[in-house]
Amino acid sequence: MDLPGSPGTQPGPERESVGASDAPTTPSRALAELRAGNRRFVTGTPRHPNQDAVHRTAVADGQHPFAVIVGCSDSRLAAEIIFDRGLGDLFVVRTAGHTIGPEVLGSVEYAVTVLGTPLVVVLGHDSCGAVQAARAALTTGTTPAGHLRAVVDAVVPSLHRAQAQGVTDLDGIVDIHIAQTVEAMLGASAVLAAEVTAGRCAVVGMSYRLAAGEVRAVAGEPVDLAVEPAGAVA
């Protein structure tokens, strides 16, 4: 008989465990898996895969994540939740405004070259506070105190790009910043660029809608991989 509070009496949807051999090994399959997980999250039918005790033990000796998520640190942007994934599935690196530096690039290169991860996703979101802070600094001519300045300085080139394109709405600027991060990452990492050229990896920029929970692709390399398939959530 199950005791109160034992695993056999826990409420909620049934969880499933997926082995490393079932993980996507190509960029297109990895992206399809993320999109499928996001559809489950949006429609309120999550499976919570790879979150049980059996899988926790299975991945203790090694990891084989199928996607790297370079995301904004915003507390509402928890990758494993919005993509309905579990332990060992996603290699997550988060900074305010998904800004990149040597440590971020090194982490991405580790996942791609050592762990063999086939997909890198730059994940931004609407109403991004880092973009708003950078726009305020640019408008007022003031510089934020402390290390926040580094975040603002990293976002400012995206604001200049938006100005050149005549984009003034915040969410349009966010999309441009996501695309800018994708380009900057490939431009700064010869290792990552070589993996993409060889077809072993892809980099896709995606934007998350906080209220709706949907993600949509806004940029990518190769470009055709970022095109939303028919029937996609966003």
From TrEMBL:
<dbReference type="GO" id="GO:0004089">
    <property type="term" value="F:carbonate dehydratase activity"/>
</dbReference>
<dbReference type="InterPro" id="IPR036874">
    <property type="entry name" value="Carbonic_anhydrase_sf"/>
</dbReference>
<dbReference type="InterPro" id="IPR001765">
    <property type="entry name" value="Carbonic_anhydrase"/>
</dbReference>
<feature type="binding site">
    <location>
        <position position="128"/>
    </location>
    <ligand>
        <name>Zn(2+)</name>
    </ligand>
</feature>
<dbReference type="InterPro" id="IPR015892">
    <property type="entry name" value="Carbonic_anhydrase_CS"/>
</dbReference>
<comment type="similarity">
    <text>Belongs to the beta-class carbonic anhydrase family.</text>
</comment>
<keyword id="KW-0862">Zinc</keyword>
<dbReference type="Pfam" id="PF00484">
    <property type="entry name" value="Pro_CA"/>
</dbReference>
<keyword id="KW-0456">Lyase</keyword>
<feature type="binding site">
    <location>
        <position position="125"/>
    </location>
    <ligand>
        <name>Zn(2+)</name>
    </ligand>
</feature>
<comment type="function">
    <text>Reversible hydration of carbon dioxide.</text>
</comment>
<comment type="function">
    <text>Catalyzes the reversible hydration of carbon dioxide to form bicarbonate.</text>
</comment>
<keyword id="KW-0479">Metal-binding</keyword>
<dbReference type="GO" id="GO:0015976">
    <property type="term" value="P:carbon utilization"/>
</dbReference>
<dbReference type="GO" id="GO:0008270">
    <property type="term" value="F:zinc ion binding"/>
</dbReference>
<feature type="binding site">
    <location>
        <position position="72"/>
    </location>
    <ligand>
        <name>Zn(2+)</name>
    </ligand>
</feature>
<protein>
    <recommendedName>
        <fullName>Carbonic anhydrase</fullName>
        <ecNumber>4.2.1.1</ecNumber>
    </recommendedName>
</protein>
<feature type="region of interest" description="Disordered">
    <location>
        <begin position="1"/>
        <end position="27"/>
    </location>
</feature>
<feature type="binding site">
    <location>
        <position position="74"/>
    </location>
    <ligand>
        <name>Zn(2+)</name>
    </ligand>
</feature>
